[in-house]
Design a protein that fits this description.
A hairpin with a 4-residue loop joins β3 and β4. A six-stranded mixed β-sheet has the order 1-6-5-4-3-2, with helices on both faces. The protein is globular and about 80 Å long. By secondary structure, it is of the alpha/beta class. It is built from 13 helices and six strands. The longest helix is centred in the N-terminal third of the chain and has 43 residues.
Length: about 350
């Protein structure tokens, strides 16, 4: 071996050692700084409580602390930053409570999550951001698009989501959002498009689609053929969810949901269960993604009580939080009215 030549495997080993060491060092520094910010927030709150009877004491305290820290350590300790540290402690009074992987989150993760008002939603974002390794950009998008609230369209999901980390058996309904927000496809809502074009856009943005769709999904194929002795059928998209341990079929609709769409998906699910599902798999799930739902069709079809077939709307633009919240509330009222009608009819 010449002096200028080394074995590729040797170089790879050394590179991996350095990469892992740098990663561990970054994680250790990040964890230490997050804890330091929390400790600073705690001390600010304690000091404020000592002088709580003096008007304006809290603001004056933070301003003076900012001035002295900036003199000692340089930039990074503005009044707004110290107020964030204070809010950090007030939002998470026990930083390590109940979930060790939170140490993987950065200060930016915490700063985004602590602005979420709903405590259950905060816990959900903490858990999912750590478990699913969400970037801060992905976390910010999910908070803005009300990811958690869209998972709560069915009232019985609330308890399941809040306790998801301790529940071993997952239920399909816990994974279905309504609506799905697919703004990353960059298809204008005002432009007519075919279902094949929608499918192609999803495949071209598959990673982002899977992040929006939820956890546990693995891509199997598009235009997946399933055959009987006499006919061939093609399913738009097929995934496997390793948490639910089942296949997930997706049928894309560029227009309004119809009873024919539901009947077709019902057939696909039955065929897949019969021809493709193994003994270790749970029953196949079918999801119809449509731009418009017909509530009459939903109410009087197998969708109403099915645990295998679901219909969800998709949005091609990212609405404001207010618009999305209004849409979620509207859909929730419709669901509750349908359930009330069902109870009345039953009696």
């Amino acid at each position: 071996m010449s002096a200028n030549t080394i074995a590729p495997t040797f170089f790879d080993d050394v590179r991996n050692i350095l990469t892992q060491a740098r990663g561990n060092a970054y994680a250790a520094v990040n964890s230490a700084m997050v804890e330091a910010y929390w400790q600073i927030g705690r001390r600010i709150v304690e000091e404020e409580q000592n002088g709580k009877n003096r008007a304006g004491y809290g603001d004056a305290l933070i301003k003076e602390l900012s001035r002295q820290l900036t003199t000692e350590f340089g930039h990074g300790f503005a009044v707004a930053t110290l107020k964030n540290f204070r809010q950090f402690y007030l939002t998470f009074p026990d930083l390590q409570k109940g979930y060790a992987p939170r140490s993987l989150l950065t200060w930016t993760h915490y700063r985004l999550i602590m602005r979420v008002d709903n405590p259950l939603a905060r816990d959900y974002y903490l858990r999912e951001a750590a478990e699913q390794n969400w970037s801060t950009r992905q976390l910010e998008r999910n908070i803005h698009s009300l990811y958690y609230e869209r998972l709560l369209m069915s009232p019985n999901k609330k308890t399941a989501l809040a306790k998801e980390h301790v529940v071993k058996k997952q239920h399909p309904a816990e994974f279905i959002k309504d609506p799905y927000v697919l703004e990353f496809l960059q298809i204008p809502e005002s432009v007519e498009f075919s279902e094949r074009e929608l499918e192609t856009a999803i495949i071209n943005n598959l990673q982002r689609f899977l992040l929006e769709f939820g956890k546990g999904f693995a891509y199997i194929g598009r235009q997946f053929r399933i055959s009987t002795e006499t006919s061939h059928f093609y399913i738009d998209l097929v995934f496997y969810n390793y948490l639910l341990k089942c296949f997930v079929l997706i049928d894309l609709k560029s227009g309004k949901l119809s009873h024919q769409d539901i009947g077709q998906m019902d057939m696909y699910v039955r065929m897949f269960d019969d021809l493709k599902r193994s003994e270790d798999d749970n029953p196949t799930i079918g999801i119809i993604l449509c731009s418009v739902q017909d509530q009459t069709v939903v109410k009087y079809s197998v969708l109403k009580d099915s645990e295998q077939i679901f219909a969800s709307k998709y949005r091609l633009v990212l609405p404001s939080e207010e618009e999305l919240a209004a849409e979620i509330d509207r859909e929730r009222r419709i669901i509750m009215e349908q359930r009330s009608d069902y109870v009345i009819d039953k009696h």
